[in-house]
């Protein structure tokens, strides 16, 4: 059993799919591990630490992949970077297949079994493998750090001899994994925090973190399936907009995290709402990768709209790469362990397992995931 860890090739990707800790565990499971030279550099992991953990450091993708039957990556590797890969090799990464159908089809043609880690079911057994949660949690934290850095006032209330400084007001829209961590972080920094969500169940979680929950009476509950939100009707959207418009005008910092599975991010903050905020206010749009929750967000950029800073950073978790890699590597290791026979020290994939079935996107040259059934093969 040989496991290869590639250097990430997508521009701006700072994370890596294995750490010295996870390499030690993989070696303990009987694997031979190869790591591409420089793979951990942006996460502050020098090649020497991988080598000390028992990995062989190889120059270039081809040497790293030679003879590998498992590949670990953060982003979907391009088919061309997997040249020479053994048919049937397992590739674990965030595959991001929607809108990238041709790339996935090319990957399928190499004969690999591609697992999309973002398809991991949100069930108790799979919590330790949940990359969406591990990374969203860090993104929520980092969004507050970036907002605080861009904000030219203090966040906590301060009573000083020279006068009292009021606590900054932070409003978090979308109280899922990222939003709840943003609330907790803003509270730790002393801000006065409020939050909204369209799932009624989020209210209790928001309040348990010491923030005020804001929800329109007209909405009641827009929970969809699997704990996710459903898209709002036009009438519900109008009720939500009316509720938040007045509130946003009084906020110093707004952090938006709202997503709906398989849909573009809902637009929650209009240009007029941004313009209603005081000069120097800050917005962080964590949904920028899916089009953004804020009308004026420029995905991948920090912009200023009428004196309001709008942060549209992509890959927010990648800004704290060392921590993000540590948790991501643990997620992958936990999943891979379920596919290894510990006594025989060999791969033993149970293709019937619900976690395998939920995440397997390609196998034997074809795209096999039901959600991708319409993709040309
Ligand atoms: P997500 O990233 O899909 O969405 C972020 C948040 O935006 C969600 O809370 C959603 O309700 C909210 N949202 C959507 N439309 C909105 C709108 N118009 N206005 C305001 N908010 C809006 O969600 P997520 O962070 O991945 O979490 C989804 C759910 O899954 C949560 O209930 C979470 O607790 C649950 N979860 C469970 C597990 C597990 O059991 N293993 C793991 C992780 C998350």
Automatic annotation (TrEMBL):
Top-level enzyme category: translocase
The keyword NADP is annotated on this UniProt entry: yes
Entry's Gene Ontology BP terms: NADPH regeneration
Keyword Nucleotide-binding in record: yes
Occurrences of domain Alanine dehydrogenase/pyridine nucleotide transhydrogenase NAD(H)-binding (ranges): 148-312
Residues annotated as domain Alanine dehydrogenase/pyridine nucleotide transhydrogenase N-terminal: 4-139
Highest taxon of the lineage: Bacteria
Keywords associated with the record: NAD, NADP, Nucleotide-binding, Translocase
Catalytic reaction equation(s): NAD(+) + NADPH + H(+)(in) = NADH + NADP(+) + H(+)(out)
A GO cellular component annotation in the UniProt record: plasma membrane
One Gene Ontology MF term: NADP binding
EC numbers for this chain: 7.1.1.1
Similarity comment text for this entry: Belongs to the AlaDH/PNT family.
Known function: The transhydrogenation between NADH and NADP is coupled to respiration and ATP hydrolysis and functions as a proton pump across the membrane.
Name of the protein in question: NAD(P) transhydrogenase subunit alpha
Organism: Pelagibacterium lentulum
Name of the gene this protein is made from: pntA
Residues represented out of the complete protein: 1 to 377 of 489
């Amino acid at each position: 059993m040989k496991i290869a860890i590639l250097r990430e090739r997508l521009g701006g990707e700072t994370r890596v799919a294995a750490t010295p800790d996870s390499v030690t565990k993989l070696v303990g499971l009987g694997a031979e591990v190869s790591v591409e030279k420089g793979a951990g550099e942006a996460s502050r992991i020098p090649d020497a630490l991988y080598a000390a953990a028992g990995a062989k450091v190889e120059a270039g993708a081809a040497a790293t992949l030679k003879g590998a039957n498992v590949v670990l990556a953060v982003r979907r590797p391009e088919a061309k970077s997997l040249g020479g890969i053994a048919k049937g090799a397992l590739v674990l990464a965030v595959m991001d297949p929607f809108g990238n159908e041709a790339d996935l089809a090319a990957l399928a043609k190499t004969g690999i079994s591609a697992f999309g880690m973002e398809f991991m079911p949100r069930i108790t057994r799979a919590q330790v493998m949940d990359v969406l949660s591990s990374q969203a949690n860090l993104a929520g934290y980092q969004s507050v750090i970036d907002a605080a850095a861009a904000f030219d006032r203090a966040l906590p209330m301060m009573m000083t001899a020279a006068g009292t400084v009021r606590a900054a007001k932070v409003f978090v829209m979308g109280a899922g994994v990222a939003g709840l961590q943003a609330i907790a972080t803003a509270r730790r920094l002393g801000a006065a925090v409020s939050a909204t969500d369209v799932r009624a169940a989020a209210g209790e979680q928001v309040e348990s973190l010491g923030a005020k929950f804001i929800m329109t009476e007209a909405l009641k509950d827009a929970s969809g399936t699997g704990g996710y939100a459903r898209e709002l009707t036009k009438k519900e959207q109008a009720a939500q907009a009316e509720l938040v418009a007045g509130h946003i005008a009084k906020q110093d910092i707004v952090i938006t995290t709202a997503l709906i599975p398989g849909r573009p991010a809902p637009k929650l903050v209009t240009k007029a709402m941004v313009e209603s905020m005081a000069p120097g206010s800050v917005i962080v749009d964590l949904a920028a990768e899916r089009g953004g929750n804020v009308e004026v967000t420029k995905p991948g950029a920090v912009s200023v709209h009428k004196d309001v800073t709008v942060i549209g950073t992509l890959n927010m978790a990648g800004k704290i790469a060392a921590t993000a890699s540590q948790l991501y590597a643990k997620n992958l290791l936990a999943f891979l362990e379920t596919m290894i026979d510990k006594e025989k020290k060999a791969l033993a994939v149970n293709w019937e397992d619900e976690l395998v079935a939920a995440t397997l996107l390609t196998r034997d040259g074809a795209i096999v995931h039901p959600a991708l059934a319409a993709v040309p093969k």
